Amino acid sequence: MKIAIISDIHSNIEALHAVLRKIDKEKVDVIVNLGDIVGYNASPDECVTEIRKCEAISVSGNHDSAVHDLTARESFNVFANQAIRWSHFKLSKENKDFLKKLPLLSIVWDRFIACHGTLKSNDSYIVKPFQARRMFNIMRKEYQRINICFFGHTHRQAVWSRDVRGKVKQLKLNENPIHLNPEEMYLINPGSVGQPRQNDWRASFLTFEPEEAKITFYSVPYDLYKAQQKILKAELPSFLAERLAEGV
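Now predict its structure.
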């Protein structure tokens, strides 16, 4: 079985279409979406419709929650706030209802956990060792049978591991694919489809092959100019268009 893990599409339909084409070429069996389908960019309704169409297993991101929950916007910067308010009026009722019903996390076939930020919040980050350690502790306490969690929210590819001695470290992504040790625990971020922040503008995702205990990262080019022009035409902040080209 081959599973595609995608995250942080953020209303970028050009990037999503490019990723879905690559996923099709890779003969993926199922897609898991780690949240934040909407926000920032200019095609929110189209992106939600596409995710529903491909029947992806999906969880809720903080921007997805903010479509309905005003309090979820309190931590947003001015650009994110403006974009999510704009998105609210562009989404169909059916797609708003879909976002509202998304769960905070999903346990997929008792093999791995999918979440957006952390297991307790879709607006918390895993970027520091103590944050990864906290997540591993929750997994050991509440999800003993599962040793892998896929998460998003940071918009950066990442792999954290915990060995049998309890040592937590962030792996250097020098090798691709990466073979996972079944004796260790992992927190894995596929990066962002629609707004990458690792100094690379290309859309990011990964595939997971459980039987081979293997993950493979991908970076896919897409029609960047078209995505930028849609942002400007929608009169969203020009910074949101500029940052796409920088991958920040």
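The CA atoms of residues 25 and 222 lie 15 Å apart.
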